[in-house]
Amino acid sequence: MSYLILVLLWVLFYFFHSVFASLNIKRKFKAVMGRYYIWYRLLYSIFATFHFLLIFVYSATLIEQRMLNQSPLFTYIGYMLAGLGTIILVKSFKHFSNLKFVGLTLHDDLKEKEKLITKGIHEYIRHPIYTGLILIFLGYFFYQPSPSSMVHFIMLLAYLPFGIHFEEKKLIATYGEDYRKYKKAVPSLFPFKLKKTA
């Protein structure tokens, strides 16, 4: 039952993430909030941060046994994966404003169209934030191989196809043919493309 609650918390987190990022939902909020819509991003960031912290505080209360034997090798792998994931995350934020991303710079994201980022790490993968999170969550599992860390990782992997689908639907609506060309040219999560079968 404890892990079912953890799964449910993640389902709600990812559900709210996709819903509140939707252009249709944003337009509805803007119709209600009017000129105060510039606070939307910051309010969502605060809500998401508390929800994220709630998940990890809850998982810390679970009494768990390690799924793998204690090993310096696993600890090292965990640090390496999480470190690489953190580097990718930092590089993914290089070409846009962190303050705008979290909402500390108040703005109307429905009115102010950001430039499509295709530089830096975005030349090689379209969703480096997700790639970084995959590596961080996997690294955390190797560092702390518990059922809850496995749930964190599996729930992220389960969400990604949906998250990428909805995010790219929004990006196509925003950037049109420019994003379609970018999507065809650049892989989604890892810097290689699978060969298409004839």
Automatic annotation (TrEMBL):
One GO BP annotation of this record: methylation
Compartment list: Endomembrane system
Keywords: Membrane, Methyltransferase, Transferase, Transmembrane, Transmembrane helix
Pfam family, one: PEMT
Transmembrane portions of the chain: 6-25, 37-61, 73-90, 124-143, 149-166
An example Gene Ontology CC term for this record: endomembrane system
Keyword Methyltransferase: yes
Main subcellular location: membrane
InterPro entries listed in its UniProt record: Phopholipid_MeTrfase (IPR007318)
Lipid bilayer topology: Multi-pass membrane protein
One term of GO molecular function: methyltransferase activity
Gene3D superfamilies xref list: 1.20.120.1630
Protein name: Protein-S-isoprenylcysteine O-methyltransferase Ste14
Organism name: Aquiflexum balticum DSM 16537
